[in-house]
Specification:
2 copies of one chain form a homodimer. The two termini of chain A are 27 Å apart. By secondary structure, chain A is α/β, with parallel strands linked by helices. The first copy, chain A, is elongated. In chain A, the strands form 3 sheets. An 8-stranded parallel β-sheet of chain A has the order 2-9-8-7-6-5-4-3, with helices on one face. The first copy, chain A, has 2 domains: 221 residues, TIM Barrel; 117 residues, Lyase, Ornithine Decarboxylase, Chain A, domain 1 (Beta Barrel). In chain A, helix 5 runs parallel beside helix 6. At the A-B interface, helix 5, strand 10 and helix 11 of A face helix 5, strand 10 and helix 11 of B.
């Protein structure tokens, strides 16, 4: 790839083949477990990459803002906004609800009552449940709160109860497959207890779960009807550390020009900083890293270069630590390829992709 | 302000009056010390805000990328790119050099030789010196390296030596005015030694220094010819922690809708996450914070609300910790105002401002 891409600035490279493999693997898993597959599109944020999912029978998606729902409504007519409904955007809600099947997420009485009074078109409602992450959602033991929402929904002709939606975001604190599975199993237990309480009343209830770690490594989806992982489309170094993927699965890398070299510190300075990578970081063997440098290959990239990583980021600068014996192999005016720590954030900052074949792909701006 | 602004999503609010005060204060200080004032525009990244500086006699600026230089060249004809020259962007360099006074920053032989062979229009060259930060620049004791660059510059009719440029970025590790002053004084000593060695050979040599902390608190600029602080235009909570400014000086705040409340944890969930604030954070009394919530006032915002801060950020979610006794005063569907930890990064993500009077201001996209 490297002869043709004409890299002059920080550029987000996508390996389409790896990305398609990630999509295929997750779509097959959903099929195998008879789960509806509603991928979360907040990671790639691109209409064009979204189309790649259609080859695998995907016809419904999740997003995390109404802005994204609006963008994707050009191609998708069944969208879940997996974020507590922002009632200040009621105009967008009504406009979207007039065009597509819009599934909203609600977790409090204020929002459900507001919707009841301001909806002009029909929406489906997921009640958000906190399965242990502690970010959003109703505590599943607060049955009165859940029943209050259900009552409002039932009495409003413009709302239909779709089911319970949860996010096991606490799997992100794991660093092994075992930890992910344990966390996921605890979530399954919580959500199934709730499902069983409501199944006779709502036989078509949909249980929507599915963070990338759990969906990547678990083979137990008992009681789950729908999964909605997002990050798996690209993965990243953070997901690798959690235990979700191999390094080879990571489908995006940043190409960053080398602008300076400092032999005494065995460090390179790259054009590529916090406004390109994001400041997301992780700790590996007591060292803070912001990205891992990979070997360049003819068709993209290969293995991670040992002990070669982004050590620090300021606005436009990145500092790369390289083993002293490799230092002379780097040239100012060349570029390095770096696997990002958190691909969702990097994509959001970069806005555009370049495939390893040289094709430009845009995202929502 | 709050009745008219019609906040429905995360919005970056700018208090123009505070911003103008920050500009005026720094411009007056530069004048008082007979320093050229070349503000760094990487913080605000806006042509329109750039114009506010012209009222204070500013006619030259610094930026941190050629992309920014290109954007600002519509209004400014003397621009320093305070970043090691990225030779891969030679086309942009030549295009800009044909239109404006372009000052490039060089710190290695590879780049200077490349420029010598590829420049088509005249540029000025700052040699970048590392005064102790350890990010970029030549070690000032490496006289041979400096002299090599000078020799190339002297023998190239398209390059003119402008002076030495440094950034005391290690002031960002301070947490008191004394620490900033100490760090700044050490930088002054280093750069003045160097200046004195070259002054007879280059009587018009320009010494360009000036991080926001040093420029904000120091009154000693001996030997310095030009300052180029950037962040001071808005300041932020990080600069406040370093000791550069008062909380009242901070000129930008994020308005974020409240979408959920969790009384048992005394936490609010806001629409406003890492893609709005950036993941920059700081530690205060052993607590990690991503922003401080301020009181809303008729004309903007007032004091920081005690123990009310952004505790965590994911892509679109922010979690705000509030004192239990204040919890009931927050309403879903209302919004909070948050001072960002790092205004440069927040502006880069948000791209647009809304003044407290309701005027839209755009940035480079």
């Amino acid at each position: 790839m490297h002869k043709n891409l004409n890299i002059t600035k920080p550029t987000l490279i996508i390996d389409k083949e790896k990305c398609m493999m990630n999509i295929q693997r997750m779509a097959s898993k959903a099929k195998r477990h008879q789960l509806q597959f509603r991928p979360h599109f907040k990671t790639h944020q691109s209409l064009e990459i979204g189309l790649w999912f259609k080859n695998y029978g995907v016809n419904k998606i999740a997003v995390s803002s109404l802005t994204m729902a609006d963008y994707f409504s050009k191609e998708w007519n069944d969208i879940t906004v997996a974020f507590p409904t922002n009632i200040l955007e009621i105009k967008t809600i009504n406009s979207l609800a007039s065009k597509i099947t819009l599934n909203l997420t609600v977790e409090n009485s204020k929002s459900i009552l507001y919707l009841k009074n301001h909806l002009t078109h029909k929406v489906n409602i997921f009640i958000q449940i906190d399965v242990g992450y502690g970010r959003t959602g109703i505590d599943p033991s607060h049955i009165d709160d859940i029943n209050f929402l259900l009552e409002v929904i039932e009495n409003c002709p413009l709302m239909e109860f779709e089911g319970f939606l949860s996010h096991s975001g606490h799997t992100y604190k794991c660093d092994s497959v075992e930890c992910i599975k344990d966390t996921h199993n605890r979530s399954l237990k919580v959500i199934n207890q709730l499902k069983n309480n409501y199944l006779s009343r709502y036989p078509n209830i949909v249980i929507s779960l599915g963070d990338t770690p759990s969906c990547s490594v678990s083979e137990d989806f008992s009681g789950i009807d729908e999964i909605r992982p997002g990050n798996f489309v690209f993965y990243d170094v953070m997901q690798y550390q959690i235990g979700s993927n191999t390094i080879e699965d990571i489908a995006v890398a940043m190409a960053c020009p080398i602008v300076a070299k400092h032999k005494n510190r065995s460090e390179l300075v790259i054009y590529g900083g916090g406004i390109h990578f994001s400041k997301d970081r992780l700790i590996e063997n007591d060292i803070t890293i912001y990205g891992k440098v990979v070997e360049k290959t003819k068709n993209g990239w290969g293995k991670v270069l040992a002990n070669t990583y982004v050590k620090n980021l300021s606005q436009e600068h990145g500092i790369i630590k390289v083993p002293f014996q490799d230092f002379d192999s780097y040239t100012i005016g060349d570029y390095v390829l770096v696997l990002p720590v958190h691909s969702c954030m990097t994509v959001d900052l970069m806005k555009n992709y370049l495939t390893t074949e040289g094709q430009q792909i845009s995202t929502l701006i």
